[in-house]
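anyone seen this seq b4? input:
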Amino acid sequence: MSALHNDRKTFGIHGGVHPPENKIQSTSEAIGSIPLADELVLPLNQHIGAMAIPAVEVGENVLKGQLIADADGIFSATLHASTSGSITAIEEREIPHPSGMMADCIVITPDGKDEWIELNDCENYTDLDHQQLVAKIRAAGIAGMGGAGFPTAVKVNPRADNPIQTLILNGTECEPYITADDMLMRERADEVVAGAKLLAKLLNNPEEVLIGIEDNKPEAIAAMRRAAEHSAIEIVVFPTKYPSGGEKQLIEIITGKQVPSGGIPAQIGIVVQNVATAVAAYRAVRFGEPLVSRVTTVVGDSLLHQRNIDVPLGTPIAHILSAHGWRQEESDRLIIGGPMMGFTLKCSDAPVTKTTNCILAPSITEMPAPPPRAGLHSLWHVCRGLPGQPLTATAFLVFA
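predicted toks r here
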């Protein structure tokens, strides 16, 4: 057994970096919550694939968990009310996107009751067949919560010619600042394991069920080992290095196999799911809960309070920042995700979606603005001053 207490051999990957982790700021307290916002804005497309189709009308009253938009085909996902209230608009609103684009959204004004629909609890869900379980996950609107947003019902229903030998749950979370999965594993390890078992059943019980975690998460590792103690699930720990949480990188680290260029993991008998996705799938089939909230890291030195919260989908980011004492004058930008793969948010009115794992509000000192890039006009004058032959417009474009 290695120093990392693995029975399994792990493998290295080429390249990678060790940026400052900045994890401890948001892990000093349990996952929390904040008061409901005055309105919730739910984009119709929070997943890879076709946009969902509204199933409600303006003026209609809804309950928490009620279907408000239906999936448009296989590669789509349903959408549910994240609290009880009234539908006050179906219109274009700002969404979290690098371009600052607007998109169709359903707007709910909460009634303050947070009243659930009647949920279909299923204690004996392991007795259900494959298609019944897939239908429950599809109906709950589960999509990949690690960032990609791939509809989960599709991923757990691979083609018959791609038999799955290995299921991997990704608890790596290698991106600096983000600790949503870390805290989820610390506090809800039993549900992560239950989700792993469910996904394994859906994949016809692969030979291996592995949960990969970087070695910078000792509390999560200990919790997951306790939860998996009497199961065949392996907790695989490996050295911390970015980007070990990437799907293809994680597969190589844990199995030594490489996904073919342009291919998908199922082609080599592997399926990878995020730990939060596994929990959401479990709660969908066991308790009948659709995906209406998620754990999100709220972090950055411009905030008075840094932590993780379980936040209703559709909550405006401005509301979350306000609840955490955002000092806007000390912040140059807002980032959705981490500093490596995240993007700058154009408008703080944009809402949390199924894929929002982190809201990063760094101070100017913590993350200074990049130096301005020279425009083409300035570059033209610089180049014209170079010694040698006169610079033509064509040569300038090549030079630029």
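Confidence is low (pLDDT under 50) at residues 382-400. The first helix runs from residue 130 to 139. kinda curious what u guys think
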